[in-house]
Amino acid sequence: MATRAFHSTKVPEVFLLFWIVKLLTTGMGEAGSDFLGTVSIPLAAVIGIGGFFLVLWLQLRADRYQPVRYWTTVLGVALFGTMIADGPHVALGTPYAVDAAIYLALLCGLLAWWRASEGTLSVHSITTSRRERFYWGAVLLTFGLGTAVGDATAIEMGLGFAWSIVLFGVLILVPLVLWRAGLNATAAFWAAYVLTRPLGASVADWLGKSHSAGGLGWGDGTVTGLALLIFAALVTYLAVTHSDVEGSHGPAPDAGRPVDELDAV
Q: How far is residue 170's CA from residue 36's CA, in Å, rounded to a whole number?
C-alpha cells in the first residue's frame, strides 16, 4: 500500500475523556441505527453507509488530527458497525455468537497483518497513511465484534440490558487492572476498546428500549438526541482546549519504539 507521512499522530491522546466520548459514540451508534431503521430503511442506509464513507474519506485525506473530524468519523463507524453486525443476523439468521466469532477472527487477522507490516500496533504510531488505514479497519471490526458480543449476552444468553451493563462494566476494568500489573499497554488498549462497544450499546438499549424488552422506555430517538448533545459539547471542548493532542498529559511516547517497549497508553 502506498503511504505518506504526517508530522504528528492522527489520533487523540488516550485519557479519561477519550473513553467517555468513545462510550458515547457506541451508545449513539446502537440507538441511532435502531431509530433510523424504524423511521426509514433507505434513510438508514444513506446515513449509515453513505455517511460512513464520506466521513472516513474526509479523515483519511487530512494530514493532521482534528477532534471534530476524528470523532465524527468514529461516530460514522459506530453507525455502520452496528449495521454490519446486525445485518448477517437479520438477513441470514446466524446467531450473534457466530457473528462475534467471525469478527474476532477477522480482527485478529487484521491486527496480525498490521503488526507484520508495521512492527507495531500502538495508537501512538499512527503517523503514516498506511498505518491509519490499518487503524480504521481495526476500529470498524471492533465495533462489529462488540455489537455482536453485546447482543449475544443480552438477547441470546438472556442476561438482558441491565445485567449486560454490569457484566461489561466489570470486564472493561480488567485490561486496566492487568495493565497496572504489567500487561502490554497496546494489548490492554485494544481489549478495552472492544469492550466499550457492548458496554455503551447496553446502556443505550437499557435507556431506550421498552419496558417489555427490559429497558426504561425512553425511546431510541430520545437517547440518540441526548447522547448527540453531550457528544457535541465534549468534542467542542476538545476542539477549543486542544487537551487531547498527543503529549498534552505527559511526554508523547516514541512512535518508533517497538510495541513491546511502549509503557503508557
A: 30
Contact 264, 185 (CB under 8 A): yes
Could you report the average pLDDT of every consecutive run of 10 residues in the chain (265 residues)?
Answer: 81 93 93 88 87 95 94 93 75 82 94 94 92 95 88 88 95 95 93 93 93 92 95 96 79 47 36
The two most distant CA atoms of the chain are separated, in Å, by 53
pTM of the model: 0.89
Q: How far apart are CA 77 and CA 154, in angstroms?
A: 22
pLDDT given for residue 1 in this prediction: 54
